Amino acid sequence: MKITVIGGDERTVRLIDLLIKDKHKVKTFGFNKLDINTNESLRESIKESEVIIGPLPCSKDNICLNTPFNSEEITIEELFENIKKDQIFIAGYITEEILSRTNFYNISTVDLLAREELAILNAISTAEGGVQLAMEETDRTIHGSNIMILGFGRVGKLLAKMLKGLDANVFVEARNHADLAWIKSYGYQSVHLDQIEDYLPKMDLIFNTIPSLILGEEMLEMLRKESLIIDLASKPGGVDFEKAKQIGIKTIWALGLPGKVAPQTSAEIMKESIYNIVSELGV
Ligand code: NAP
Question: Of all atoms in ligand 1, which is nearest to the CA of residue 210?
Fold first, then answer.
């Protein structure tokens, strides 16, 4: 395949390496701080490619591409003006605003972060990163600790499995009864959302995976001062961080873990997902 990669972070740099190893014809743009930049204009670098891979996340302000390894900004508009209808644009976290521009230019666009297989596999490094943080930031072993996980989605499921494997006493919150039954069936203590206050005072560590405020003032007041909260959820997170600080409960909001703790695995996952997209679209 002929592929152009435009901007991105360490994961994308590793992805470029993997694509080249797989014998694709790869051009790059938006990496002029590194020695991997193809020496061509934006238009030239994407002209012949079937697939254009943008950053993950695509943009931080909906105006410029996310290009930490480039000394100049590249606007989204500038890129989209140069993409043709028969090319596919793949990037991560394509917002409504960005999507409205790709629709305007009639560009076929796929959001990598909306791919379920990528979200599931990314949850592994997120959960591992959470466990790593817990080991670094507490003075207790995971073994024997009372640990509550809020949310039993992709990250919650994997985290519960890892913590159980380390012999923690694992308490898992969910709000629907099917999830609560699964939690019980795996041998964890199941806790309905409405009952978490009964368990919070016993916890050494709380992992939040719910992207909605769960641990507000009332809940935080119930925790012991030695407890640690690790919030893994995306914005707005699940914790009133300001209140936690006032009360004296230590919190860590750990975002972007896959790229931080496992950039190589993240790149491999991105590559597989891109191949799946391309195969499904028949490129
Ligand atoms: P998920 O599979 O959608 O799971 C989310 C969980 O939160 C589900 O159990 C869901 O319950 C629950 N939930 C959502 N809204 C709720 C509410 N208002 N009240 C109570 N429960 C609620 O998501 P995931 O893949 O596990 O990811 C979890 C979070 O981590 C997301 O915010 C994701 O963006 C973020 N994330 C962070 C990193 C990182 O590096 N920190 C990496 C990947 C993902 P129901 O099933 O009942 O809706």
Answer: 7
